[in-house]
Write a structure and sequence with these properties.
- It is found in: Cell membrane.
- It is a multi-pass membrane protein.
- It comes from Actinoalloteichus hoggarensis.
- It holds the Pfam family MFS_3.
- About 80% of the residues lie in helices and about 0% in strands.
- The longest helix is centred in the middle third of the chain and has 30 residues.
- The protein has one domain: Up-down Bundle (Growth Hormone, Chain: A).
- The model has no long low-confidence stretch (mean pLDDT about 85).
- With about 400 residues, the chain is mostly helical.
Length: about 400
């Protein structure tokens, strides 16, 4: 349910925003507000997740997110909506997302045996992506056609349903702490763990560059795609449908990730994912045909999930449970902290050189990811896992 809410929201918010402004920089500012908390709040979020019951953190985050959407609904009801209010709500949703996502990713090794994490993460991604990308975006587009208030109400309802589902989960998910420490010391320990592991810090840097590129293109894609005067010329419902093409690929990727990892090996599978990512961000630069863009999005969606399943499972295997929250937050500070920067970069590039240039520049930039593949060999990855077992 939480991922369904996210999927609806990522379509509804920019579609509401274009009713207030046609400025690429202002539209990109919405993505900036949603992702800025990963740059500012990721580290404290991870430290808190390693101190508190992770299930309860997820409960609280969903309740707050639903409340923020409630504020937005009231504003629309009294004709007080504005782009600035959208920024405030997006920022609040982003802060709670740091807590929810860090908790969700850290809780899984407490439920699933570590040698089955790749399969578990693949199935989890399948469920998440079905809701977040396959159902959410077209639903958001259809609801927008019926009215902004109805559309923005859907995420709040989904988050409340997710609260009900989490209440059914029993057990304690609070990590065991060996001795008391300060929040600052906890954050520092997580940063040291990430910085001291060559595999993890390389993956974090590569993911950060990938997210910079996808955030830049995603921030302005609605202007490139929606409206009679846009390059693609889609309606709002059609825009939501186009975004589901990446969901189709992502869903496929979640089911084949374990097999691809086994057949190709992790290093080659990650290199394949880099190629798919370049296609994902670059295809709108070479064509405006919706079917071709959709095909590129589908390929990129599949390879992105293959990357995520391999990388997330590896991180969970080589990190002690007591450090999972802090490692995940430190990792995401690097990997996701680039997203607000990408949103700003996308808006600036679009203002200066036009929308198509954003996709071309980001695709070229992503070629640098192949430098990181020199570190991510199968031998190095296996050695990192053996070090945990021997330790």
């Amino acid at each position: 349910m939480s991922n369904l809410a996210d999927g609806v929201l990522k379509v509804v918010l920019p579609l509401i925003a274009v009713r207030h402004t046609q400025s690429p920089a202002m539209i990109a500012g919405l993505a900036f507000a949603l992702t800025l908390p990963w740059l500012l709040f990721a580290l404290p979020a991870g430290a808190l997740v390693d101190r508190l019951d992770r299930r309860r953190v997820m409960l609280g985050a969903n309740l707050v997110r639903a409340g923020l959407i409630g504020v937005l609904i009231l504003a629309f009801a009294f004709d007080l909506g504005s782009i600035w209010l959208l920024y405030v709500v997006a920022l609040g949703v982003g802060v709670t997302e740091t807590l929810y996502d860090t908790s969700a990713q850290s809780i899984l090794p407490g439920i699933v045996a570590r040698d089955r994490l790749s399969r578990a993460n693949g199935r989890l991604y399948a469920a998440e992506l079905t809701a977040n990308q396959f159902v959410g975006p077209p639903l958001g587009g259809l609801l927008m056609a019926a009215g902004a208030v109805l559309a923005i109400s859907a995420p709040a309802a989904a988050w409340l349903l997710a609260v009900g589902a989490l209440l059914l989960v029993r057990g304690s998910f609070r990590p065991v702490r060996e001795e008391p420490s300060t929040l600052r010391a906890d954050i520092a320990e997580g940063l040291r763990f990430l910085a001291g592991n060559r595999i993890l810090r390389t993956l974090a840097g590569m993911t950060g560059l990938f997210n910079l590129a996808t955030s830049a293109t995603g921030a302005v894609f609605v202007l490139y795609a929606v409206g009679a005067g846009s390059a693609i010329g889609l309606s709002e419902p059609a825009f939501g449908m186009l975004l589901t093409s990446s969901a189709v690929g992502s869903l496929l990727g979640s089911f084949i990730a374990e097999r691809v990892e086994r057949v190709l090996g992790r290093a080659r599978a990650l290199a394949l994912a880099v190629l798919g990512g370049i296609v994902l961000v670059g295809v709108p630069a070479v064509t405006t045909h919706p079917l071709l863009i959709g095909a590129g999005f589908a390929l990129g969606g599949a390879t992105t999930v293959i990357w995520n399943v391999i990388v997330v499972s590896l991180r969970q295997r080589i990190t002690p449970d007591r450090l999972l929250g802090r490692m995940n937050s430190a990792y995401r500070l690097v990997a996701w902290g680039t997203m607000p920067l990408g949103a700003v970069l996308g808006g600036v590039l679009a203002e200066l050189f036009g929308l198509r240039a954003v996709f071309a520049v980001m695709a070229v930039m992503m070629l640098a990811l192949f430098v990181g593949m020199r570190v991510l060999t199968d031998r190095a990855i296996d050695a990192a896992e053996r070090a945990v077992v021997s330790g």
